[in-house]
Design brief:
This protein is of the alpha/beta class. The protein has a single domain, classed as Leucine-rich repeat, LRR (right-handed beta-alpha superhelix). 25% of the residues lie in helices and 27% in strands. The chain is built from three helices and nine strands; from the N terminus they run H-H-E-E-E-E-E-E-E-E-E-H. Strand 4 and strand 5 form a beta hairpin. The N terminus and C terminus are likely disordered.
Length: 127
């Protein structure tokens, strides 16, 4: 009986890993970027995921900024995971991301242009 449970657990883990790997995206395709002096800046998200993990490195360089309007009007977005390599976030980076309910801004971010979360669910809760 224990062997059957272990096999089932291994099978479930394999399915979970397989599903997760199918959900992976290619940062070279899902983000429009620009090279900067200190790394890469995200200009725009052009992917289709509702949960977006910004990679810490694109094209071999650290991702250091999220530009103005980078996720603007992307209403399917529910969560953004920002890496510690990011130091600045542009104004209205999440403008009209009306379903955005989860993100954490890491301590590495030292510059945030306001308004950052205007017309998001968070913004409506603050009113």
């Amino acid at each position: 009986m224990k062997n059957k449970k272990r096999l089932l657990l291994i099978a479930l883990m394999t399915v979970e890993v397989s599903v997760y790997s199918q959900q992976q995206y290619d940062p070279e395709i899902d983000f429009r970027v620009e090279k900067k002096i200190n790394g890469i800046g995200i200009i725009e998200y052009v992917g289709s995921k509702s949960i977006v993990r910004i990679p810490p490195v694109i094209q071999g360089l650290p991702v250091t900024s999220i530009g103005e309007y980078a996720f603007s009007r992307y209403t399917s977005l529910t969560s953004v995971i920002i890496p510690d390599s990011v130091t600045s976030i542009g104004s209205r980076a999440f403008y009209y991301c009306t379903n955005l309910t989860s993100t954490a801004i890491p301590d590495s971010v030292t510059s945030v242009r306001t308004p950052l979360l205007i017309s998001t669910l968070w913004y409506s809760l603050l009113l």
